[in-house]
């Protein structure tokens, strides 16, 4: 055999060996950040933002586009101008409402082993949500569709570092709009057993979501009313506006005692002031107004304070993510949420158009900003690209690696006589090595983090295997993960009941386009 | 013209426009981290590591391979075993020596505008050092050589976010060994005017370096003796061993009142215990032994505590970087250095074989660990690849972007009436936008970070320009930066004196191979 052939055979063999290896995932476990949150503003500075928000709510108010919501606010003492639809709130109303928000609650999953705690120093990582497009490096970029939506749910189920789901990743736009929410929810329930998400796109859709979640978890209405079983995200139309689908979502989710994450869409320089302080004052005012509505409807209903403040590129108007401004906003958002004792949501975001080095470093910057700020819910944790316009399979895996690193970083070091290892150091002595030391042999299998994606081989080994970079390795990993996917168990009676519900609601016309 | 031709012309035009744009660098300014350091261990836990280190030094000791160094230690009261060459230190000796280390000093550059402060919350970012190979994505990987060494110095000079130099990046192995240190130092002096670095590879080389630095800065010997004008790094041969070149370096640099960064090479599981606590106790013991030598030779001479603890992959023995263990070690290293009030060095490191997403996220993890741990000197700040075996041009630019983001993140937010922007929010009102607001127009030009490398355009614009990913953009940027490089002014008399010195020393045979 020629030397070159032998090398090629050997390279293929190594590659196959590598592919036979287990995919190295950390076990399922909700991470808890044991370190103090990073607080980059003083308590006085946080108070200044808080007071500015209260002045905005008192003096300017929020335009509330749903009459029912204006009535609810008015009933609680807010000052409603029916001409401009603007609602002004005195600080007593806002602070009274915020006093009933639960600081911590359990978000129940279909599989109780996948329940997560929202609040305190707990963190839960969610997939990308709301992306209209989807891509992988082989098939390229394409509009969101049901097949890719389903495959990304399979990945979300398979990745232990994904703790909860999020909105469409990507949106299955090949499913007719009137039934899309139900078809998508059915797939989410069937393909995953982690905690669910439902969009709040109209009152009817929210009610359909609530009923499907009740069926999925096999609950009585009374028990659903006691247990937070899914969540939605409501983005305000910044500045200072809440539209009808958002308000329906807040109202109906609160009535059902389910979770709303109120997330103002405050991009500094566009929908928010060009200063971070101003953008955060606006974010805080809008979040308080939205959260107050839920508490007025049902005091004690579960909420999450969503921070999404970033900035736009002032030359193009394009949104930017993972910037210094984003890091600061994510950390300050956490300070504000803690001021009100509300669980906090932030995101792993980037503005790259490819799952490349930019997507990785902007993502890493976002993750550090979010998690050092004690984010409880990290939405878009895996798979987001292009400022949210695309869900990327390779980015799913790149992000999973970064989040696994953070989850391991959150495991506190043990410092005691055994770990300080003075006896092992004495035995090995100057100039020795620890490879064969009993102290090492007792611990080496679980001593260190084992990566899912990173390749630590020598350049020569890596080159002999084809010089496969991280993005192409991520491609192989997600394909293998899909091939190895196993659907979670689902009681046939529940599947049948869900099917019957969807059939009935489809016959009724689903949810009309509005 | 055909539609396709027009599109191509338009794409080329946009590309040229993009290339004509300024390279967006932040201005030269030494960053200062205004936020509290992240302390993941309690004061008691740090004390446990400290006490374990003192026990290691008292009971086991360090093998000191240079007789002169053993004599110096013995003169200060250490217990020397000439048979095993092991030196044991009682804690009084170590703590007494550490008491004279300056907590903060100025590292002077040839250009005084490029002086940096070492200590406190100041940070300085250095290039990669010590890489035997070099690569770019067009020409591939090749042995280190003088042309690439010189080009990387030009990049170091051009990048404002690089504050100080480091060792060979890459090593110019085409320059004969006896004169390599002088030829390399001359190029460093000629091509850059930032604070210099010199390897400590033998006594003669250290003395040559000191003299060349004195000439470069145009100092009298007395003034050189007062001003820290360059630094070296001494890596211990872990575990618990210091070889002759390292000891010469510590001794001669201390005599000249120049800076040594003592950095134990404690890879957990190989040259250090498999537990992070044990690896850090060993790191700390070795650092204390090395730093004590400098203080015995010359109390008050400037030092930097170097942390380099990471772990190896226990299946292959390959070093790993940017891992959860690395992040923790970098942060705990900072806690230990602050315990002794010594400036702290850490690194931006990764184990990737390409300037890809892995190199970016492992680098980002390292940077966050290092900088939240209040690293004063970040070596390998730009350009490191392959666990240090290769200096990468594209990684230079990727890292520069990440460090620019961190430097901007370190600029504290101003929270006052003007930035809280209540009047602007009132003027814009619900549903408006801030693009044209006077509050925005007054501030938009400098409001946000402008990236060097990140591309925030829409997918469609990006695709029309050829879908150039971050690594390929980095390639273009470094080439353009080299094309636009301008050498810093150098007094011809100094250049002549340096030339004469090198000629004389070359005639004498340079520094013999040892």
Count of helical stretches of chain A: 20
Please tally the β strands of chain A and state the result: 20
Structural class by secondary-structure content of chain A: alpha/beta
Q: How far do the termini of chain A sit from each other? A: 70 Å
In quaternary terms, these chains amount to homodimer
* Radius of gyration of chain A, whole Å: 24 Å
What does this entry look like structurally?
Chain A is globular. Chain A is α/β, with parallel strands linked by helices. The N terminus of chain A is likely disordered. A 7-stranded parallel β-sheet of chain A has the order 6-18-17-14-12-10-9. Chain A has a domain of 313 residues: Trimethylamine methyltransferase-like (TIM Barrel, Alpha-Beta Barrel). At the A-B interface, helix 2, helix 10, strand 16, helix 11 and helix 12 of A face helix 2, helix 10, strand 16, helix 11 and helix 12 of B.
């Amino acid at each position: 055999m020629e030397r070159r052939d032998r090398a090629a055979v050997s390279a293929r063999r190594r590659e196959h060996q590598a592919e036979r290896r287990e995919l190295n995932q950390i076990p399922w476990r909700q991470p808890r950040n044991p370190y103090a949150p990073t607080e980059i503003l003083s308590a006085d500075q946080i108070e200044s933002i808080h007071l500015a928000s209260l002045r905005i709510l008192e003096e300017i108010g929020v335009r509330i586009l749903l009459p029912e919501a204006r009535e609810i606010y008015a009933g609680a003492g807010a000052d409603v101008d029916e001409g401009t639809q603007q609602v002004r709130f005195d600080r007593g109303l806002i602070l009274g409402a915020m006093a009933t928000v639960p600081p911590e609650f359990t978000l129940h999953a279909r599989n109780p082993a996948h329940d997560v705690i929202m609040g305190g120093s707990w963190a839960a990582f969610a997939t990308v949500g709301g992306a209209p497009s989807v891509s992988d490096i082989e098939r390229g970029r394409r509009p969101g569709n049901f097949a890719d939506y389903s495959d990304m749910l399979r990945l979300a189920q398979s990745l232990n570092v994904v703790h909860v789901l999020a909105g469409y990743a990507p949106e299955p736009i090949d499913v007719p709009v009137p039934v899309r929410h139900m078809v998508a929810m059915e797939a989410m329930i069937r393909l995953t057993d982690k905690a669910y998400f439902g969009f709040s796109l109209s009152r009817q859709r929210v009610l359909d979501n609530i009923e499907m979640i009740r069926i999925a978890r096999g609950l009585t209405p009374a028990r659903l009313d006691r247990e937070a079983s899914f969540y939605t995200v409501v983005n305000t139309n910044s500045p200072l506006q809440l539209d009808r689908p958002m308000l329906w979502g807040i109202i109906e989710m609160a009535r059902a005692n389910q979770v709303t994450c109120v997330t103002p869409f405050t991009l500094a320089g566009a929908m928010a002031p060009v200063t971070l302080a101003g953008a955060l004052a606006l974010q805080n005012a809008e979040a308080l107004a939205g959260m107050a509505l839920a508490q007025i409807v049902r005091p004690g209903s579960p909420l999450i304070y969503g921070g999404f403040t970033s900035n736009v590129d002032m030359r193009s108007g394009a949104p930017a993510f993972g910037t210094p401004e984003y890091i600061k906003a994510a950390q300050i958002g956490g300070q504000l949420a803690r001021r009100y004792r509300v669980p906090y949501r932030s995101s792993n975001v980037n503005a790259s158009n490819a799952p490349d080095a930019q997507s990785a470093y902007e993502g890493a910057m976002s993750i550090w900003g979010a998690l050092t700020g004690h984010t409880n819910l990290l939405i878009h944790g895996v798979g987001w690209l292009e400022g949210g316009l695309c869900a990327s399979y390779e980015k799913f895996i790149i992000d999973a690696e970064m989040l696994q690193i953070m989850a391991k970083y959150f495991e506190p070091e043990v410092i005691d006589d055994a770990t300080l290892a003075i006896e092992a150091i004495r035995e090995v002595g100057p100039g020795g090595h620890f490879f064969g030391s009993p102290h090492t042999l007792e611990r080496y299998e679980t001593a260190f983090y084992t990566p899912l994606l990173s390749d630590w081989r020598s350049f020569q080994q890596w080159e002999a295997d084809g010089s496969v970079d991280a993005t192409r390795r991520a491609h192989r990993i997600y394909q293998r993960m899909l091939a190895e996917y196993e659907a979670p168990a689902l009681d046939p009676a529940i599947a049948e009941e869900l099917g019957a519900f969807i059939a009935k609601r489809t016959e009724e016309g689903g949810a009309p386009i509005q």
